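queue> pop job 88
queue> type: inverse folding (structure -> sequence)
queue> payload:
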């Protein structure tokens, strides 16, 4: 039974992204749950361990394996079943160890943004008291890397996914759109007239790559860079901000 669950945002790839509050929480945790395989990104697993070591915590570190999503199920059902199974695996991995005190999980970026850890925590029975320690999001890492403001003066911002951009096109009336979780450079499907893109991959990491410019002019370069970087590293995480003049 988990009484206290701490979800600690760790930023997007630099150990320096973890806040003082995050480091303190790691030191005060009794147990830290860490995904050990199945993510397909060993560099990211290693970063989690570097952060834990740097915090100087004496917490017990317990690994759990991510389940595989069932490709036979429709998308939403597949995600629901996956979350249920992750919650079960947290509980199984802890098996009594949770009695020792707060259980911490290191969450990529910030737990509120395109991350389901908070939703998975709500599946635990009995429900633990959940504490969220905010982290730097990929959006902040992107705007900081390009030294740009997220919004125009008094402007709104829409945050969406590559899938939604492909399926529904440019959001009606939007001026600034941030696109995450896009494995297919979905900006290719847009009319680039009057559009500027700020793109970033591996933000916060030594491999960080940035491109920006008129969408029509820079689009091919981003596609080629992304392809080459993905081939070189075996994985890639990228995000971009599009602004319509
Ligand atoms: C599952 S979401 C997690 C977002 C995270 N919770 C946050 O606060 O940024 C993963 C997506 O975030 C973006 N992302 C996360 N880390 C990134 C990084 N270091 N560089 C570029 N994009 C990143 C990518 O769009 C990626 O597909």
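queue> result:
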């Amino acid at each position: 039974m988990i009484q206290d669950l701490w979800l600690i945002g760790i930023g997007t790839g630099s150990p320096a992204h973890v806040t003082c509050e995050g480091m303190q929480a790691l030191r005060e945790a009794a147990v830290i749950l860490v995904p050990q395989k199945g993510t397909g990104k060993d560099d990211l697993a290693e970063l989690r361990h570097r952060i834990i070591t740097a915090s100087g915590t004496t917490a017990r570190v317990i690994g759990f394996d991510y389940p595989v999503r069932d490709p036979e199920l429709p998308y939403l059902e597949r995600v629901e079943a996956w979350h249920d199974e992750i919650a079960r695996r947290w509980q199984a991995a802890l098996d009594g160890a949770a009695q020792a005190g707060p259980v911490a999980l290191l969450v990529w970026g910030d737990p509120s943004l395109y991350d389901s850890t908070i939703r998975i925590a709500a599946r635990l029975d009995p429900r633990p008291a959940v504490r969220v320690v905010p982290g730097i999001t990929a959006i902040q890492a992107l705007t900081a890397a390009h030294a740009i403001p997220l919004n125009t003066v008094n402007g709104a911002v829409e945050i969406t996914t590559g899938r939604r951009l492909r399926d529904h096109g440019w959001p009606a009336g939007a001026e600034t759109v941030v696109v995450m979780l896009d494995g297919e450079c979905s900006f290719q499907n847009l009319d680039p007239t009057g559009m500027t893109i700020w793109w970033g991959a591996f933000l916060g990491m030594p491999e960080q790559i940035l491109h920006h410019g008129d969408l029509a002019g820079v689009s091919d370069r981003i596609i080629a860079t992304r392809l080459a970087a993905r081939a070189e590293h075996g994985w890639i995480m990228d995000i971009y901000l599009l602004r319509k003049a």
